[in-house]
């Protein structure tokens, strides 16, 4: 089996050249700094020794030592990265051998031979949806060949075919195989060196503190050294940005190059399918974990999370009309974009990976065809797979401390429980998600007798308009964030069209107008829904009840909007409690918070008092809120926070945030459920 050689693209070569030049300039500057520090150390050492020799006393020794320490500390600072080590935490990693897993090792043999790299030093299984090649690194690893380790996530193998897993692993090994890729490791390490000098200074800081604490004269020398080091760091900050920016550009090109290698090994389609499914698989995996996290108090566990991951993945696919073939969702680029709900593409100069669109389009352009012969799940490569799946699951639950005996949840129970949760936490499914983020419209007196055609409601055109409005909302928010940033990109892409920097504000205006027009259309549709429902309720003798329920919901919606704004105001006002803040400023901030606290108490009291909302409250939450309402708290007495008072405040805020949403959600869900009686025809 021949080794695949993929020549680098022109953009890869350009990025590698720019990265290499930035590294070369940094090396020259670093060497100059190093020799200057060496010269400074030599001069100061001679001066310090001379002072000590003038007259031997405790003062001359201390003064000489303080002067000598200036140069030595600067020199230590400049070479400390040599002793830095990067060690991978192997908690949750299970090492496997060729004897344990011959089929999986045979697949890896095939990949490393085709890619042209060495077999991993060790192979590990983990629980998650991931695959990576890693190694423990230090300064010498920049020059010495180091064997890499391979990590494969069971969650990944549970959602890939064997051919797709082969493509993913070939991509990972591709980063270390071709000569053209080796420049990436040098750029990465140069970047790490500067990062170490700028940010990883804990142990060096401890050394300085210990030395400075010996005597005040020595501390003067330490202070001078710190000023010199700060000056050096300012120089390094420039190079950190330069190298980091060039490294990130190169990193994106390296991803394209590794994708091309993987496509030659397993085919463009295998890698594209795997990439498009990974996000869905990861979402399903964490949906399962989040379920058990929510039920820690019930001590619920399972012996195998992976069938549950598969069920969630298929459930999400069905909800988004993603076809399933041989147990696996077939996510297309169109479906991926639809789920993301955006037409905006901004080239992020700080991104280490290209966007999913870019990667998949690149693979389709390569169009390397390889026969997909191993369509079985990758999990079937494992010997005794059930034992391994249960072992990885047990490792996950071993991280949790339970207060009582655990309860084993079967696959069937998990499915039932999750479906029950979904039903409880969603509006009537008959609306097909229309009212998830839209609301019933108030009933206008002038429209009560309007003629409404039932078949015009909830049509495909209305749902398409709803989707367009959702995308517009998302993209307008993204563009607002973009225009608020200090550095705008030279161009962006919107709806597959290039938009120059100077035209971004015009695009934003056009999208805002389209949003206003589309929102008006949806509101008119919602008015028709309310009118038709009212007319049919009236025909059944329930018109007055319907109108009253709709008015109450409209009031609750306005209250929800006010409460949401209040929650945002509260969190902004209390941001200072999460950062180091001068005492005087803390006192002033809490004085400014007094009127906001009064607003919170008033809004919370209202939620507690309205009769129809009483059933939504849990007694524990009610008691916590009452403690807050009944108390008068001083949250800060110089120089300390009152931790107990702050806990009462933040608990009340969290409960208020939860309950104001629950009140609106439950009232809206109840109304929508009752309204269904009058909308069976248009919804069908």
TrEMBL record:
Q: Which InterPro entries match?
A: HtpX_protease, Peptidase_M48
Under which name does UniProt file this protein? M48 family metallopeptidase
Q: Describe the location of the Peptidase M48 domain by residue ranges.
A: 150-365
Q: Which organism is it from?
A: Flectobacillus roseus
Sections of the chain in a coiled coil: none
Keywords for the protein's UniProt record, in alphabetical order: Cell membrane, Hydrolase, Membrane, Metal-binding, Metalloprotease, Protease, Transmembrane, Transmembrane helix, Zinc
Q: Which Gene3D superfamilies match?
A: Metalloproteases ('zincins'), catalytic domain
Keyword presence, DNA-binding: no
């Amino acid at each position: 089996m021949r080794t695949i050689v993929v020549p680098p693209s022109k953009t890869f070569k350009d990025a590698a050249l720019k990265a290499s030049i930035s590294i070369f300039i940094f090396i020259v500057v670093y060497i100059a700094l190093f020799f200057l520090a060496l010269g400074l150390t030599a001069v100061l050492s001679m001066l310090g020794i001379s002072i000590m020799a003038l007259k031997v006393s405790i003062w001359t020794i201390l003064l000489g030592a303080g002067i000598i320490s200036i140069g030595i500390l600067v020199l230590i600072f400049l070479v400390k990265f040599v002793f830095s080590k990067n060690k991978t935490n192997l908690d949750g990693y299970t090492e496997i051998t060729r004897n344990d897993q011959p089929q999986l090792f045979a697949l890896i043999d095939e990949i490393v031979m085709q890619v042209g790299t060495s077999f991993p030093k060790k192979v590990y299984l983990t629980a998650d949806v991931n695959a990576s090649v890693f190694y423990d690194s230090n300064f010498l690893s920049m020059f010495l060949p180091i064997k890499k380790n391979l990590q494969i996530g069971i969650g990944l193998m549970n959602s890939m075919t064997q051919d797709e897993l082969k493509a993913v692993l070939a991509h990972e090994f591709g980063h270390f195989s071709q000569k053209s890729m080796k420049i990436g490791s040098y750029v990465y390490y140069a970047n790490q060196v500067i990062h170490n000098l700028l940010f990883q200074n804990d142990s060096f800081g401890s050394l300085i503190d210990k030395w400075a604490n010996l005597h005040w004269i020595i501390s003067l020398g330490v202070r001078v050294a710190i000023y010199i080091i700060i000056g050096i760091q300012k120089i390094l900050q420039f190079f950190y940005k330069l190298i980091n920016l060039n490294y990130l550009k190169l990193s994106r090109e390296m991803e394209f190059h590794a994708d091309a290698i993987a496509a030659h090994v397993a085919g463009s389609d295998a890698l594209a399918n795997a990439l498009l499914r990974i996000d869905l698989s990861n979402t399903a995996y964490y949906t399962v974990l989040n379920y058990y996290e929510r039920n820690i108090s019930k001590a619920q566990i399972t012996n195998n999370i992976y069938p549950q991951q598969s069920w969630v993945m298929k459930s999400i696919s069905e909800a988004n009309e993603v076809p399933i073939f041989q147990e696996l969702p077939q996510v297309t680029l169109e479906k991926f974009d639809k789920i993301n709900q955006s037409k905006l593409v901004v080239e992020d100069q700080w991104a280490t990976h290209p966007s999913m669109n870019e990667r998949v389009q690149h693979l389709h352009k390569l169009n390397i065809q390889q026969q997909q012969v191993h369509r079985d799940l990758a999990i079937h490569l494992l010997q005794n797979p059930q034992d391994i799946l249960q072992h990885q699951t047990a490792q996950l639950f071993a991280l949790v401390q339970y207060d009582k005996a655990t309860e084993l949840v079967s696959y069937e129970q998990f499915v039932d429980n999750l479906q029950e949760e979904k039903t409880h936490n969603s509006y009537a499914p008959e609306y097909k998600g229309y009212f998830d983020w839209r609301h019933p419209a108030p009933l206008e007196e002038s429209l009560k007798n309007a003629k409404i055609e039932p078949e015009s409601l909830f049509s495909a055109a209305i749902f398409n308009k709803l989707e367009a409005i959702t995308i517009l909302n998302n993209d307008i928010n993204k563009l607002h964030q973009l225009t608020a940033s200090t550095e705008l990109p030279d161009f962006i892409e919107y709806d597959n069209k290039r938009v120059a920097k100077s035209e971004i504000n015009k695009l934003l205006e056009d999208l805002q107008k389209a949003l206003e027009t589309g929102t008006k259309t949806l509101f008119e549709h919602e008015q028709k829904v309310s009118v038709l429902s009212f007319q049919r309720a009236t025909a059944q003798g329930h018109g007055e009840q319907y109108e009253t329920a709709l008015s109450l919901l409209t009031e609750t919606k306005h209250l929800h909007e006010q409460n949401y704004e209040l929650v945002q105001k509260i969190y902004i006002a209390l941001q200072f409690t999460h950062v180091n803040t001068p005492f005087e400023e803390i006192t002033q901030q809490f004085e400014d918070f007094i009127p906001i606290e009064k607003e919170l108490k008033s809004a919370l009291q209202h939620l507690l008092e309205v009769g129809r909302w009483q059933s939504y409250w849990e007694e524990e939450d009610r008691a916590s809120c009452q403690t807050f309402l009944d108390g008068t708290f001083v949250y800060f007495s110089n120089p300390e926070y009152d931790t107990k008072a702050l806990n009462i405040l933040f608990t009340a805020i969290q409960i208020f945030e939860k309950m104001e949403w629950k009140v609106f959600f439950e009232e809206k869900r109840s109304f929508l459920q009752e309204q269904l009686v009058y909308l069976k025809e248009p919804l069908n």
